Design the sequence.
């Protein structure tokens, strides 16, 4: 049975009789006190997050998780519908669970969905996505100082800073962790 020292981001554990997913954790050893693990967990039933503290030797019940590659199909009202490309099964997820991932979702875009007890708990994007530029204002003539950037709008509605040479209709690669321009697609 694993201890709190073995805790990792994304794990599912049983906490107070409920299954919870670890969102973040830190192993701490303050001065002359015993080591402990400070973790942020989210309950699957209620969806609420909490900061909890475990002794580093405390035993935890880990729940097995399944991860699947899924395609974003469409938006149904506020909810997001994903389908398994192998079995064509669909899963409808609430906007709270999808979170900031929605800023980079395009039709047939691949995401990784983690399930615990057949309930989706985490939606993850690849490290970068290819998006089409829908609005890129022209650069100002003579504005050629080093690394000048302009604000452009992408097909998902988000805005990013990109170099002056990017035009409307081009595809660009965007880092999904930072939301920054990487290169032309």
Sequence:
């Amino acid at each position: 049975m694993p201890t709190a020292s073995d805790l990792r981001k994304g794990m599912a554990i049983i906490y107070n009789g409920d299954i919870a997913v670890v969102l973040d954790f830190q192993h701490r050893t303050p001065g002359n006190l015993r080591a402990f693990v400070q973790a942020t967990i989210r309950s699957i039933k209620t969806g609420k997050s909490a900061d909890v503290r475990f002794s580093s030797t405390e035993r935890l019940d880990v729940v097995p998780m399944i991860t699947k590659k899924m395609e974003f199909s469409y938006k149904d009202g506020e909810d997001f519908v994903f389908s398994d490309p192998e079995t064509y099964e669909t899963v409808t997820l609430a906007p709270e669970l999808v979170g900031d991932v929605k800023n980079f979702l395009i039709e047939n875009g691949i995401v990784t969905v983690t399930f615990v007890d057949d309930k989706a708990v985490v939606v993850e994007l690849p490290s970068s996505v290819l998006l089409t530029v829908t609005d890129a204002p022209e650069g100002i003539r003579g504005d050629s100082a080093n690394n000048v950037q302009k604000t452009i709008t992408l097909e998902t509605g988000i805005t990013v800073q990109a170099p002056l040479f990017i035009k409307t209709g081009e595809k660009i690669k965007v880092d999904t962790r930072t939301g920054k321009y990487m290169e032309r697609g």
